[in-house]
Amino acid sequence: MLSTMNVILSRAAVSSEVANQVRRFSISSRNNVKVAVCGASGGIGQPLALLLKQSPLVTKLSLYDIVHTPGVAADLSHIDTPAVTKGYNGPESLKDALSGMDVVIIPAGVPRKPGMTRDDLFNTNASIVRDLAEACSKYCPKAMIGIISNPVNSTVPIFSEIAKKAGTLDKKKIFGVTTLDVVRSNAFIAEAKGLDPRKVNIPVVGGHAGITIIPLISQATPSVKFEKNELEALTARIQDAGTEVVKAKAGSGSATLSMAYAGARFAFSLCRAINGESNVVECAYIASDVTEATYFSTPLKLGKDGVAQNLGLGKLSAYEQDLVKAAIPELQKTIKKGEDFVNKSS
Questions:
Q1: I need a surface site. Which of 31, 59, 71, 302 has the fewest CB within 10 A?
Q2: CATH number for position 149
Q3: Is 24 within the bounds of a domain?
C-alpha cells in the first residue's frame, strides 16, 4: 500500500513539474523582452538582476559593468528560469551588451555616503550616464531607458541631451525611475494607518531629491486622512527617506535593496506595456510640459512605444500645491545643471 502511494505521489510530482515547465514555456514564448542592466555588479545592480532573472517577462538578460560582470552572470545563469543571462565587462563590450535590447535599466554610478546629497554625486555619475547614453544611442536607439543613477533630476536631462545630439531622442522612452518614492510612500502610509501596503497606492510627483519629491497623499488609494502635523511629518520622512537609509548603514552604502525592488517593478511595467498589456501606470520623471519645469514626474500610462499618456497632476490639495511651487525652482536648477554639463563637455 505504501509503495503504491509512493508511486502515486511520484507521478503527481512529475505531472506537476511538467505542468510548470509547460506554463514557463508558454509564458516565455509569449513574452519576448530583452533587458539590459548597466551597472549590474553594484549594490543595486546585483539584486536588481536577480529580480529580473526570476521574471518570465524577461527572456534575455544582458548585464554590463566595468568589473566582475561575467561572475554575476554565471551565478545567475544557474537559476532555473527562462531568461538567458550573459555578462559583459568594460566599454569595449557595450556593443554586444546593448545591441537588440528592448529595455535598458541604468543603476551605474557611485552611491551616497553619510553627509552627501544626491547632487554631490553629480561629477562622477554625470560622466557615467553621458557615456552610457552615447552607447545606447549607437547600439539600441529604440530601447526604453530607465535611469536610476543619481542625481536623477540631472541625469535624465543629460541622457536626453546626448540622445538629441545623436539624433536618436525619443522623449517617450526616457524615464527617471522614481518608483522608490512611490514604494516608500505606500509602505510608510500603510504602516501609519495599519493597512496592507500591497493595496495602498500613493502617486508621487515632481523629482527624485529632497523637496522635489511630492507625495500626493490626498489622492491615496484607499483614501486616508492625517492631521496637518502628521501630514507634514510623513511628507518630510518620504522626502528624506534615502538619507534615513544612508545613516542607518553608517557608511556602508545607500538604499540598494529597496531601490533594486523599485527598479525591478518599473522594468516589469515596461515589459508588460511592450507586450501590449493595457492600463499599465507608473510614476516616472520625464520630459514634460505639465509644469514650468521641463522635466517632471507624474503618473504615466505606458504603452508599446513608451509613454502613451501623461496623466498629469490631478486635483491637488492646497498643501500639495505649495509643495509643487517650492519644487519648481529646485528642479529648474538641477535640470539646467545637467543640460549645461552636456553642452560644456561636447
A1: 71
A2: 3.40.50.720
A3: no
DSSP 28-56: HHH--EEEEEETTTSTTHHHHHHHHHT-T
User: 158 vs 139, 186, 187, CA distance in Å?
Assistant: 18, 30, 31
pLDDT single digits (tens) 87-134: 999 999 999 999 999 999 999 998 777 777 767 889 889 999 999 999
Q: Are residues 168 and 59 in the same domain?
A: yes
Number of domains in the chain: 2
In the set 31, 145, 208, 269, the catalytic residue is 208
Which residue ranges are tagged as binding site for substrate? 112, 118, 150, 184
The question of whether 208 is a catalytic residue gets the answer yes
Instruction: Give residue-wise pLDDT tens across range 52-78.
Output: 999 999 999 999 999 999 999 999 999
Cell of 221: 488609494
Domain span at 214: 179-336
Q: 185 and 173, same structural domain?
A: no
| Numbered residues of the known binding site for NAD(+) | 39-45, 65, 125, 148-150, 259
